TrEMBL record:
Protein name per its UniProtKB record: Broad specificity phosphatase PhoE
Taxonomic source organism: Nocardioides alpinus
TM helices/strands, residue ranges: none
Family matches, as Pfam families: His_Phos_1
Amino acid sequence: MTLHLVRHGRPLMVPGTPAAEWDLDPAAYDDVWALRASGRLPARAAWFSSPEPKAVQTAQLLTDTEVGVLRDLREHERSGEQVDDFPGVVRRAFDRPDAAAVPGWEPLGACRARVVPAVRRVLDVHGGEDVVLVGHGTAWTLAVADLTGQPPDLERWAGLAMPDVITVDG
């Protein structure tokens, strides 16, 4: 069994609108189709997605298979306000996971408490087969750290493309 954690494709950012409501940018469809054609994802797998539109739309472009939507796979919740130095703020969130990095952001500890059990439930049910989860870079960084017993890999997080895949062998 291999777990494939797919970061969604590039979203169409709408200032003042929370990131959780953003759609996939139609200009990014080719990037998603290129990932589909790359051979980095299994031909047969159980597929699930975050409920965020950009994740669901990415999943729909990646597979013809039915994709389950799991509310608990959503990204850490952030207000719609733009922040300067987004990577720096996210790194600060990882340094202090029990505090909001900026007002209106969910602490990463709360995100971990939601995402990791959801991933583990999927793996418990589908443990003998490959699993593809389509979602978000920060949530996947938290999940990989938990599944591997390693600290969050912020360099990997910073290097993730949209879309991209992290694989965890089980």
